Amino acid sequence: MNIAQQRLQQCAFTLLEVLIAVAAFAIVLAAINTVYYSALRLRNKTTTALENALPLEHAIGVIRRDLANILLPGGAMSGVLQTGSTSNNVAGQASPNFFTSSGVIDETSPWADAQRVAYLLVASTNRGPGKDLVRSVSRNRLPSLQDQSEEQWLMTSVQTLTFLYYDGTQWRDSWDSTIENPTTGLSNSLPKAIKVQIQMVSADDVSSRGRFAGPPVELVVPIVAQSRTNQVQQTAGGTP
C-alpha cells in the first residue's frame, strides 16, 4: 500500500461517524421546524386578530364622530331626536334618526356638512354568524328635493346594537326631544351623553356560532351641544 492510499484511509469517515452526524443534523432540523412553524402560527393568529379588530375599531370611530357632532333638534337642517317615531320604520333600523355635522365638504359634493344618520342591522351578506352593521346617510337636507339615503357597510358578526341616553341622573332607553326638559323647561333638548352597546357574535367555530362573544363593546360619547335657557337657577335658600 502506497502513501496516498494510507492517507485516503486516514481521512475517510466511519459508518458510526456518519450516523452520528445525520442524527445531529436531524435534531437541528426538527428544532428549526418547531420554531419556524410556531412563529408562523403566531403570525397568522395575530394577523387574524388584527383583521377582525379593524372593522370594529373603524365602526366605533365612525359612531363616535357622528354622535360627537350631533346637531340640536328643531334647526333648519335638523329634525327631532325621537326613538320609536314613525319616521324610523326602516328595515333593520337599530338607532333613531339623528342629525349630525360629520359630513365632509368637498368639491364633488353639493351638500353641506349636516346629514341625517341612522344605523341598521341587516342580514349578513356572506351568510356568517350575526348581522351586518350598516350606516345609512342622507346628505340632502333640502325639502324640495327627493331624499335618497346611502348605505355604508361597517362590520359583520353583530348580534345587537343598543343606544342609551343619559339625562343627567340616569340612563334611559328612549329619548324624545319634543318633550320639555323638566330642568330647563325647554324642548328640542339633547341628552347629556349617549351610550352605544355593540354585542358581537362568537365565530371561532361552528359549535359556538350564535353565541355572544363576551361582554358587549361599550362606547360613551358626551354631548356638548345643549339648548340654551334663560331660566335662573335658585340656591337652596330660594335666592338666585
Distance linking N and C termini? 124 Å
Query: Which geometry do the CA atoms define?
Result: elongated
Overall mean pLDDT stands at 78
User: Can you count the helices?
Assistant: 2
Number of strands: 7
Main β-sheet, in a few words?
Answer: 7 strands, antiparallel
Helical amount among residues, as a percent range?
25-40%
Radius of gyration: 32 Å
Ranges with pLDDT <50 over ≥5 residues?
A: 205-210, 230-238
- What is the domain total for the residues? 1
Give the topology string: H per helix, E per strand: HHEEEEEEE
Q: Which structural class do you get from the secondary structure elements?
A: alpha+beta
Strand content: 15-25%
Account of the protein in words:
The chain has helices spanning 3-11, 15-68; strands at residues 98-100, 115-123, 131-138, 150-166, 171-172, 193-200, 217-222. It is of the alpha+beta class. It has one domain (49-222). Strands 1, 2, 3, 4, 5, 6 and 7 form a seven-stranded antiparallel sheet that branches. A hairpin with a 4-residue loop joins β4 (150-166) and β5. It starts with a helix and ends in an 18-residue tail after the last strand.
